Amino acid sequence: MPGPSYSRQRNANSIDLLRGISNALKRSLDNKKPSTTQQKGTESTQKVGKTYLLLLLKRLGDFNSSYQERGQAAVEVRQLLDGLDQKSVPAVWYSAHDLIDSTVPQHIRRAALELLYECIVRCEEDSLKVVFFPLVVNHMIELMEKNEVFELNSEVALLLSCLNAIVRDASPLLKTDDISVLTAIIDEIVPLTSQKNLDNIYPEALLQLMSLIQKLIKPVKEGALLGVARLDNYMLQMGEDIGNKFFCGVIDFFTWLMRNHKQHVSAELLQEIAASVIYMSGILNERKEEMVLYDMELLLKEISKTSKRVSFLEQLFSLNAIKPKETNKIFDSYVIMLLSKLRSNLIDNDTNESRHEIIMVANKLYQQKKDSILLKLILEILNVNSKNMESFVDDEFFLSTTKNALGLWQLIRLTLRRNSSLGRLFGHKIINKIFKNHGISSSIGINNLLQFTFAEGLSADPGIIVCALEAESGIIFELETLRLLVINIMVPSTMMEVRLRVWKLFINLARDAKTSFLSPDVNKDSLLTMLYAKNESLELNSEEATLFEELIYALIQELDADQVKDFIQDYIYPDIYDTLGTLRRRKSIVGAIGTFARGWQTSERLARRLEILIHGLIRSFIWSATDDSGFKCIFLYQTLIKVYGRAAGCAHADTLLDIARAMIRIRRDISGYLYFKNPSDAIGISSAFGRNKNLLKEPQQRFKWTFPESTKIIDDNLLEKHNIHVMFDDINEKSTQCVDIGAWLSAAIDTIEIPRDLEIYSYLLTHLCGQLSDITLFKCHHSLIDRFKRVICNHLTNSIPSIVPLGDIISISDLHSAYVRNLSAVLAYHSFQSKSFADELVNALVGGLTSWEKTLIPILHILTISCFEIPQSIQRYLTPILQHIQKRITSLYATASILEFFLALCESRKLISNLTIEEIKRVFAIIFKLIENSVDLKIRSKQKREAEDYEVEKSAPYQRLEYEIDMSPSTESFLIKESLAEFFQNQSFRALSSWFLQVNESCKLELMPFIIKNLQSLRAIKSLKNDATAYMDFFSRSRFGPQGSDNIIHGELSDSALEESSKMTRWIHDDGLISIRVHDSLKKAIVSVRKPSCNRIFEVDLSVSTDTQPSYDIFNFPDEDENSESLRSSKEVPIDPEQVLFQLLYIGKINASFENSFVKIPDVISFRRSINAFDRIPDVDIQKAGIVYIGPSQRTEEDVLRNTDGSYQYQWFLSQMGKFIKLDEVSKFFYTGGLVPKTDGEYALVWRDEITQIAYHTVTLMPNDSDSISMKKSHVGNDLVNIFYDESGLPDFNFNIIKSQFTFISIVITPQSVDCEENQAIADHYKVKMYRRSGTPGLLSCTHFKIIGKPNLSRYVRHACLTANAFAQKYCENRSSDACSIWGVRCKHLTTLRERVCAVL
Predict the structure, then answer these.
(1) d(Cα 906, Cα 371) in Å, to the nearest integer?
(2) What mean pLDDT comes out for the span 318-328?
(3) Residue 1265 has what DSSP assignment?
């Protein structure tokens, strides 16, 4: 307590200061006059007020007056303080300062203290307020010293109020000593009050005391704080009528205490606070004082921030046992705040202390059976973000169980089991949170967590569970866990997205060989059974069905061979078998009595299930090409064949179609191993069925298949993978690892023979053709190939069963076209069959010639190939073939095919040797008719062009180096331009000459009048005059000997051997030019004859032979007779070229009219140039083409052009294509296609006959440049036609493998598999196919691939090359010409020269 000296000194000073202020106030009230500016109406009022106030002050300060009067004056002055200047307020108190003495009656003291409080409050200046401080303190000390019983009564309350007004938040104006005194007073007041009777405590005094303590800078002692808390607690317990003001004061005091002096809060103090809080909570909740309760929540929040938070909770626990009703609510609120703080601490500052507090609180809650709050606590902890949560999750925190504390996971399990009803409220939330936090779920263990969740019936979110499962890596799932997943999550109520993710989980597990899901010691049968059951009960949508299919796919891959066998035999195949039967019965019932919605839905579900199983098997079968064992591939093949048979019996076309998609991709490599390949040779047939994507106009959704085909059940990444463990059943060494490919072919033939569905029927017809081109795949199944041929021939000659509706897209002609193309593949097997096989095939084709034009073209193409492959059968049916063709010559689009067939016929003289003269005339008549038709086509095309006023389209827009290939079939119609009509004419004249050369000599003489007559008719046509004249020359000279010569000399090459003194004269007549050069010294004449169809050069000996006997001069006498010498020898006379010509005409007995037709050509430079230009026109049809070898896996232009060698069979192919010549040995005018000696190699490959010569730009014969391959590119890049010998092994040919502006057509030769792996093996069969630039019609027989046998390969390829080259040359011309043949060009040149010569003469 402060000493007496401090009290007396500070009190005296304050009284003196107040006395001075009071005197100054009285003088001011006496002397101050009203302002002149004030209104007169208010002067009297103000005068009266001031006078009265002065009287009151005098009365108040009159010590002689009674206490009663002065007390009354104090009350009245307090009411008039508002009208007094604030600086004069302290003077008022001076008048009443003695009234607070302890000797003064209590009610007077109270009035004086109330005046004192009002005076302090109205002092705005801190310096004036400080004056009052010693007075109040002094009075407080006196009360403490004089009263034995110190009470916090109303008087003390007023004194404390005054101190609160003076201190005002611990104002810095107070001196340190003053603050110390005040603190000491409070330290004394509280113990004095606590030790005495507490019944008379005035609540306001306690409030003012708490308020004053909060304003002190220097804290009071802990004992004082504890005393105040106890006083508060006492008041709360005893004062039932205490108002909200006291509650708020207590709450504010405790809040201030926990916020600013938490370090001084002892356990006892904390207990008092806890008790107060509980008592207040009970009362306030009854009163529903929300605002005060809010303040209390702030207090609790503040407590939760301190280190005493757990201790406070323990206090609540202890009090809860005494007053559970009052405690529960505040307990819950505080726990929530505490949890929030602990959670915040975990986020902001993860420490071991935080973990310890959480564990301690959780265990306390569990012990007190506060299950609801405990679960809330755990939820709050789990709400911490995952990053921070992972940082403090450890075994001790979540899992460990010690003597003192249980881990959180153990608490969760025990709590939920003890109070199962809370599981519905909190259990699912907690479990979801744990699943979300992968660190926690991993610590607990996914298996334990899942099994506990489902065992306790907790409604955890399936999506969250699946997320946790997906996040786990390397975990070994127990079978029970997977079983519970299937039972609880794979149900209709689970969201589709979640079920999809579960399917994916099972797929990933199936692919992970490390999981117990796949380990041998786990019983998988039960799990597979459950999966099947769920698949049957669930209404699977398309995506979920896909994932179930994916699971089947994964299981077949990962299970061992025996497990796969059991899996398929026990589950999949029986399921498929039963489902197909059920669908068939439902279909029959529906057809009989109609359908209902439920029945339709059931059928749809069954169909979807069937599709899943079938697709799973098919995908697995395609994958099996990569299986190391080989067993799975064989077993899956056998299973699919069984399923195909069952589906065929049940007439389930979709299943048949799906299985066929896999089966038609089976191929066999050179070593006899199985692999899969996408079909690529189905353009023509798919177009016939209206399924070619490139030509498709209908929506693709209308059809179940199109070509090219892209289907989800065929993984393109697994194609071209060769399985060295799987072979075919024709291998000599029988093995269980063999595929019986005959089973598939037999099943396919059954489907085609008795078709029931157009989709599978058309699909098989389209793709079996390409599969049959793999000769080695089916070569040992002779009977099946023969059966297939008979089925196709029967459908071609008769008709398919009417059970198959064709619809509005496919016609009978389309079907017949498909039959014919299949026969082109069957034709390749003739060497394995009897002769009747080929005869029956050709017989069926002959019957098809009478059908539609769509069928005519492919039939002619097969007949063309048959001329090379089965000439005997063609020879047998040649007469009816020619008869049918003669009836179809008006088919414009078939013109090229007819001409190609005729050219193929005359490739072999034996083939046409049995034709009668009339039949041969029929051939020539057809050809002449085709020429006439082409003239009409040319005229109509020209008229159309002129009418529509468009320029002739340039077929070779040399603007880019890469072009799209034309995918249209040979049956597709195309625009017939003038250039194409000229191609028809060119091929027709070529056919005329080729046929004439092949017939025997006797027939030639009989044919001549007929041929000449028709040619003369053609001469009347202006556009054909030159060609007809030239060919008349050809046929005329053909009577006098064989055509051509092995050493034809063009021009006047022999002139260089003559001296300059020789004489030469030239004459031109109707259809030729004769040059005669005479040299007297040699007594020889060189005669050159230039005709439209040939050049002839021969030598004439001009020496005169005389029959004279030699004489001798035995006596050596001179001869005196001057004329005797002339008798013995004649004088030499120079010979003129004209003499030689006349002698030749004399010898030939040429009449005078013919002799006069010779016109001498003036020897001037202009005519010499014309003759030299004529000499540069070859007398045979010259062509050039490239031959390019593509080695294994070669893909680029540089790869193929750098080849300088090829395989053994490629070299064999070159040797069959022509003759090798040395470039440095050829004559000046010999055509080599631009090849130069040394630069382009030593050798060149050429071929020629009487009317044609072709030079091959063979890449492997040319050397590589030192820096590039530009020289090779300059040749083959400028060829219109290139032949590619393709041994790359790649599935598709790249038309732009050699980038060129000029290449129109590529003829690709692909050797089929050989029977052995010897380096010098030569394939027995070859696939030949033509690829053409976009916009180029498919006219050749190899537009659709053809299989050619080894003996006939070179003849056919050369035939195709010559035809393609002639077509390309004409097709790329930009304008119409006056002649369609090279002989016609020569004739035109000679005619022009004659006209010029005659014009000069």
Answers:
(1) 104
(2) 63
(3) P
